[in-house]
Amino acid sequence: MGFLDGGGILRGVNPSRTLDLFYRQILSGVPTDIFPTTMRILGLFVFYPHAVLSASDQVRFLNLDQATFCQSLLNLHSVVYVPPMDELHTARPRIYHTSFSDFLKDSSRSGKFWLNPDSVMNEVALQSLHWMENDDGSPSRKAILKFSAHNGWDACRQLSNDLIPDLINRLERVDFCRLKYAHITQGPGFVRFLQWLYSLGSIRNKSLISIRQETYQEQAPPNKMRVECHVRSPHNYIASFIPEVSTYELPFTLHLRLGKAVQVDISLEVKKLDLASPRAAWYC
What we know:
The chain is an alpha+beta fold and 284 residues long. Helices cover 41% and strands 11% of the residues.
C-alpha cells in the first residue's frame, strides 16, 4: 500500500482517513466491467450481514453464476472472506470488519464507491418476489426462500418514492395465488407490506389492494387465504385501513383483496401481540 508508511499508518492523517484511502484503493482495483456486479454482491453483505445464505445461495439469489461471483470479489480478499470453491455450498461469505461496511454506507466517505441503499432494497424486493412466485418446493431453495420471505416485503416498504412506480408495475404482474403460507408468515414483513401498500392510496398503488365487504367463508377456495396479524397496537393497525371504525372486538378480521393480474382475497385476523411470546421479537 503505497500511501502507508512502514508502520502501516499514513503520517499526518487520522486513522479513519487512512482507512478510507485503503478501501478506495482496493475498490479501484475492481475492473470497470464487473464493478456493478461487485456492488450488488456487497449490498447483501452490508445490509444483510446476518443473512443465513451460503455463497452458493447468494449466487442463485442474485441470478449469477459461481465464476462471476468469485471473479467479482477477486480483488477484495483483504476485506471480504470468500469461501473456497469446494465450500461455496456450505460457507457464508462475509466482510471482515464493520469499518468497511460503514465506509460503503457513508457517501461522504466513499464517494463513487457509495453503496446506495435504494439500489440494494430494490434488488432484494424484486429478487424476493421472483423467488417466492416461483417456489417449486425444492429443498435446495429453502434458505433462499426463507431469506426472501423474511426480507423481501420489508424491502418493498423501504424504497424511495422514485422507485415505487416500477415496483407497483412489477406487483401488478405477481400471481399472489402462487404464494405459499410460509412466504407470508416469516416475521411481520407481509402484514406491514399490506399496511404500507394500502397507505399509498388507490392512485399510487393502482388499486392493487382494497377493502372487500363480503365475509370470510370457512371453506375457502384456493384464491382465499387467512393470515394472523399480531401487533402491539391493534387499534392503530386497523385504523390505517378503516379509520371510521372506533369500536371493535379482538380478534378483528380485515377483509382485503390483493393483486391485479390474479387476485387473492385475504382475511387478516388482527390480534393483540403477547409480549411474552417469541413473536414479540419480530412484530411491531
